[in-house]
TrEMBL record:
It comes from Tilletiopsis washingtonensis. It comes from the Eukaryota. Signal peptide: none annotated. The chain crosses the membrane at residues 34-57, 78-100, 112-130, 139-157, 169-188, 200-224, 240-261. Keywords: Membrane, Transmembrane, Transmembrane helix. This is TLC domain-containing protein.
Amino acid sequence: MSASPPSYASLPFSTLLELMTKLDEHVQPQHPTWFSINTFAGMLILYALAKLLHLVLPRACGRRRWEAVSPTNRKTMVIYVLQITVTLAAFALQMASASLAKFEFTARTLEMERAGVTLVAMLYVFELVYRDSMRGPMIAHHIITVFIMSLAMTLVYTERDPSFALTGWLWLFQATTEQLTFVSLFLYRLKINPRTLRILFRVSAVQAFACKAASIAGTVYVWAKWQRTATGSRYRAFDVIFFVATVGLAATQVWGTYVVWIMGNRGLRADEQPRMSPAESQELQSSTPCSVKTADNYFMASDRLPECLA
């Protein structure tokens, strides 16, 4: 029999008993023939919600504003709403299992965490299928996040190591702290006041970067304390995968933060410039179409920026 994971030494006996009960389940997440009814039902629910939002959002946003948005961007706005609602639900489950951060494991907290991970995984896979197009950094972000969370949850069972449950819990913050960013992008599509957008974009850029940097720091701490010194081929494979995933995800987050911050700066420049007459505006657009001189030009010239996040 292989040696116990190093993390066992940090567990009280009562927690260890709870953990063993959960880990002794006969069906494990990595089993190829495990038919997860709740996952497939969740995907169908997301599909139904997306269809419903296509009916509700025109009334909520105003039909004229909604029809001014391209069909592709309407799908994007639907995804923004789903991102906000589903990740909030996942965040609530994450907070309900917050005792994992204190290295306290119960059957209930592990179920809560697994439910949160499942919600985010369903959402990201649904978005990859539902959207007409997505930029490379966002595709990489979704794939890396789903993969590393799935791997961590699988290793909880294959290695019977609860430290991976904490890794998955911390990694979940990569998906559950982006609500303000999606609110900002949704309002951007509706072309609200640039000054308001500037504030939202700047605050969301700082908030998301801080939360995700803390998430990465937490996973690195868990790896260094409990996983780095463990023995076994799966641990060594995880070391490599974890390093690559961490670097890749950090790169996508830095890029996303940069894009959101730049959008805020453009809103500032647009709002601070005086309004021009229609003739002056037309002359400016014909000579320098990429300039950002007015609030109207702000939306025209920066229209491609949200696609870097999409």
